[in-house]
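Hey, I was hoping to borrow your eyes for a little while. I've dropped the whole record in just underneath, so have a look:

——
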Amino acid sequence: MAATTGLIVLTGSITAANELLFAPLAGNGTPWQDFNWRIIPATGFMALGMAGLEKISPQLAWGLSITALVTVLFAQFGKAAPPVTNLTKVLGYT
């Protein structure tokens, strides 16, 4: 298993958890109806792509994986707000 695969799987898991748990708990949508199922194959393809890129340039692949993880935490993709925003709503900080 490539070193970047764990980061990419973590990125996909955070995105899926945001769509399934955090957004509905924050009051944005229903848990299974609004889930974007394309997250699962996209995570797999991204992990394969990063594993291939890691053979060419390990530092670039690692940097892109970290960038993807940070971007998923703070940027909005799809219907759900970013995970950080949803978690602050769930925890009562906003």
In short: The mean pLDDT is 90.
